[in-house]
Design brief:
The protein has 727 residues and is an alpha/beta fold. The protein has five domains: 4-102 and 193-280, P-loop containing nucleotide triphosphate hydrolases (Rossmann fold), CATH 3.40.50.300; 112-184, Arc Repressor Mutant, subunit A (Orthogonal Bundle); 291-380 and 550-649, P-loop containing nucleotide triphosphate hydrolases (Rossmann fold, 3-Layer(aba) Sandwich), CATH 3.40.50.300; 382-543, PCRA, domain 4 (Orthogonal Bundle); 658-727, SH3 type barrels. The N and C termini lie far apart (86 Å). Bound molecules: adenosine-5'-triphosphate and magnesium ion. Magnesium ion (MG) binds at residues 35-36, 220, 565.
Length: 727
């Protein structure tokens, strides 16, 4: 067989890895050295040369996007579909397993997946149910606690409280929450993994079946596996299977979520006879970008250490832009994206990265204004939007009446006049009898325990759900969705809201019908799954991946975390400010800055040809003003690789007009512009005197000495100053 297409484009070490004998293998190598490439080629090699059936191969990675790319790459190499091969994320594959073995997992067949918002509500309910003060026991904190314990594989009864009353209370919340989830047939993200692991562990037959089935287990981004993921891999790999792990300790960025980079160190010990391969040649980035990345990561002390090189050549210097504020930063980024497009590049070759999701809003607004199509990975996702979740709640409730989260959501959306008191009564009854809200409502109605109006409203709501279920039983999924949004009253409810937001919500609901017209495939090995259930699970799991049009050429927006494993010709890392990146929290806690630096290393090494680093001296974020110095990571990149852009021209031009971006000519026109000594008024800071100004166009700013708050630099484009007197 001609296998040249598999091996031709690999270097010696890569070939060694791809063609290695069965048995544990660890590839420990830096960014862009071809780890993912080796992994996909290994799959092709196993199948086409070693004759391993796709049925016996399991490959796992971290994000849906990476898993999708892995699938595509393997299909291209095999020139056929991946068939029964299991390729996905830890969550996706665990979900698949639980759907197939719901009985053994002690779940209802139509179990629902809770996303983080659902989970928070459920935790909140449990906290209230325990009569605890929510300000002392914030749901978010309890949720983090529960997830962290699940990620360590711990059930409430396994946790040692050491007599600590806080921990004791959190364990009680975990317990109450888990009982509520089990009752509602709901599974949170961490539970997917834990439940799959427990099911495998406790069912000898199942375990044997899967251990024999998966002769080859491959895992990408191994440095970010947490305790439970590693346990899952070890269990599946069993005694005989060969496990193929690729990772880079310098890119471990999920320590905050329990990832254990030590798994790399323990690997050889846990899998005796491990063959370790290192890859040192980087094929992705220019010499400049690689040198900057290498210098940066040298500041970390806890490293296995490696030496990455390239022969691509130095290329362009890295550009560092210090903007006046976040609007100026966004404009700078968009101008550079435009430059790239105007010189023949495509939008999808550009990626804008940021530390936290909230930073995307300003960038999105600027992109929207400039008419550039963009996609956001992660963040406020389509399936997480309010109206979409409302519609999904109806669908979930139709599929599983015991789904309490969906009950709570749908019961008063649109408003049906079911008051807090009535709901409280239902909740109490449910808690006391240990049944679902749906069940409790039915009993309360039967016992005539509600007042006339409340009783009627609850009864009608339940009838509506049953009616919707009957009416849509034989419909195709998209007709079903259309029917539901109409007859639930949701569409009408949102149509009443005549604002832009209301309009967008109606559009989103309509988009949901569109999404349902190409429902996800029901995998062959899950014939029992209804298209509705497949759709709902997909909505919870793949949220964010379906946003925008997948095939449209779009600027790519994402957090640094979700950029892992990806590459783009042009990369912007925004918000390079001390206190934002590295985050304030990480600066205050010892050892945490190293993880932030690895995150920066991940960001820098995403860039193939051109890297921009930007910051805003003044940023409004989470409703607060921040004035920041440049990130310390900037100073850790040798200055010979950095080109600093900072417009500081002292020019005077008509600044009270909306600045024109492309106004390149500097006009000496003092009559209409601001001058030193002029009195101005600002809506928030009050009156003051102009003492200096600089920059031009979109970057023009003015220094004003305000009576109330002292001197401030303001960006003309945003300041909206009123002129009180000429100087
Ligand atoms: P990361 O650590 O960021 O996940 P990685 O080690 O997985 O990176 P890949 O994404 O597999 O690296 O490869 C980086 C780039 O280099 C890809 O575009 C890949 O196609 C290319 N590449 C890898 N090996 C070779 C090779 N031998 N010849 C040509 N191109 C290669
Ligand atoms: Mg990779």
């Amino acid at each position: 067989m001609d296998v040249s297409h598999i091996l031709d484009s690999l270097n010696t070490e890569q070939r060694e890895a791809v063609t290695a004998d069965a048995g544990p293998l660890l590839i420990q190598a830096g960014a862009g050295s071809g780890k993912t490439r080796v992994l996909t080629h290994r799959i092709a090699w196993l199948n086409q040369v070693e004759g391993v059936s796709p049925f016996s191969i399991l490959a796992v990675t971290f994000t849906n996007k990476a898993a999708g790319e892995m699938r595509t790459r393997v299909q291209e190499l095999l020139n056929s579909s991946i068939g029964p091969m299991w390729v996905g994320t830890f969550h996706g594959l665990s979900h698949r397993f639980l759907r197939m073995h719901w009985k053994e997992a002690k779940l209802p067949q139509a179990f629902q997946i809770l996303d983080s918002e659902d989970q928070k509500r459920m935790v909140q309910r449990s906290i209230r149910g325990l009569d605890l003060d929510e300000t002392r026991w914030p749901p978010r904190t309890a949720m983090w606690y529960i997830n962290a314990k699940k990620d360590e594989g711990l059930r409430p009864e396994h946790i040692r409280d050491e007599g600590d009353p806080t921990e004791l209370q959190l364990i009680q919340i975990y317990k109450a929450y888990q009982t509520a989830c089990d009752l509602a047939g709901a599974v949170d993200f961490a539970e997917l993994l834990l439940r799959a692991l427990e099911t495998l562990r406790d069912n000898e037959e199942l375990l044997q079946h899967y251990q024999q089935r998966f002769q080859h287990v491959l895992v990408d981004e191994f440095q970010d596996t947490n305790t439970i993921q590693y346990a899952w891999l070890r269990l599946l790999a069993g005694q005989h299977s060969s496990i193929f792990a690729v990772g880079d300790d310098d890119q471990s960025i999920y320590g905050w979520r329990g990832a254990k980079v030590e798994n790399i160190l323990n690997f050889s010990h846990d899998f005796p006879g491990t063959h370790v391969i290192r890859l040192e040649r980087n094929y992705r980035s220019t010499g400049t970008i690689l040198k900057a990345a290498n210098s940066l990561i040298e500041y970390n002390s806890d490293r296995l250490g490696k030496n990455l090189w390239t022969d691509i050549g130095d290329g362009d210097p890295i550009t560092f832009y210090s903007a006046y504020n976040e609007g100026d930063e966004a404009n700078f980024v968009i101008e550079r994206v435009m430059d790239h497009i105007n010189t023949g590049g495509s939008r999808s070759e550009t990626a804008i990265l940021y530390r936290s999701n909230a930073q995307s809003r300003v960038l999105e607004e600027a992109l929207f204004r400039s008419g550039l199509p963009y996609r956001v990975y992660g963040g406020m996702r389509f399936f997480e939007r309010m109206e979409i979740k409302d519609a999904l709640a109806y669908m979930r409730l139709m599929s599983l009446a015991d789904d309490d989260i969906s009950f709570e959501r749908a019961v008063n959306q649109p408003p049906r006049g079911i008051g807090d008191k009535t709901l409280g009564q239902i909740r109490n009854a449910a808690r006391e009898a240990g049944v679902s809200l749906w069940h409790a409502s039915a009993e309360i109605l039967a016992a005539n325990a509600l007042k006339g109006r409340a009783s009627k409203a609850v009864g009608e709501f339940m009838k509506l759900i049953i009616k919707l279920r009957q009416e849509t039983a034989d419909m195709a999924l998209d007709s079903m969705v259309e029917h539901i949004i109409e007859h639930s009253g949701l569409l009408e409810h949102y149509k009443k809201d005549r604002s832009d937001k209301g309009e967008a919500r109606v559009e989103n609901l309509q988009e949901l019908v569109g999404a349902a017209s190409t429902p996800p495939e029901v995998p062959d090995d899950m014939p029992d799954m209804t298209p509705l259930d497949a759709f709902l699970s997909n909505a919870a799991l793949e949220a964010g991946e379906n946003q925008g049009d997948e095939w449209e050429d779009c600027v790519q927006l994402m957090t640094l975390h979700s950029a892992k494993g990806l590459e783009f010709p042009v990369v912007f890392i925004t918000g390079m400010e001390q206190g934002l990146f590295p985050s304030q929290r990480s600066i205050e806690e010892s050892g945490k800055v190293e993880e932030e630096r690895r995150l920066c290393y991940v960001g820098v090494t995403r860039a193939e040809r051109k890297l921009y680093l930007t910051m805003a001296e003044h940023r409004r974020l989470y409703g607060k003003d921040h004035f920041s110095a440049p990130s310390k990571f900037i100073s850790e990149i040798p200055s010979e690789h950095l080109q600093e852009i900072r417009p500081r021209m002292n020019v005077s031009r008509p600044m009270l007009q909306t600045p024109q971006r492309k106004a390149a000519t500097v006009r000496d026109d003092n009559k209409t512009g601001l001058t030193v000594g002029q009195r101005v008024r600002h809506s928030k800071f009050g009156e003051g005197t102009v003492t200096d100004y600089e920059g031009q166009g979109a970057h023009a700013r003015v220094f004003v000495n305000f009576e109330s708050v002292g001197s401030k630099w303001l960006v003309m484009a945003y300041a909206n100053l009123e002129v009180l007197s000429t100087a």
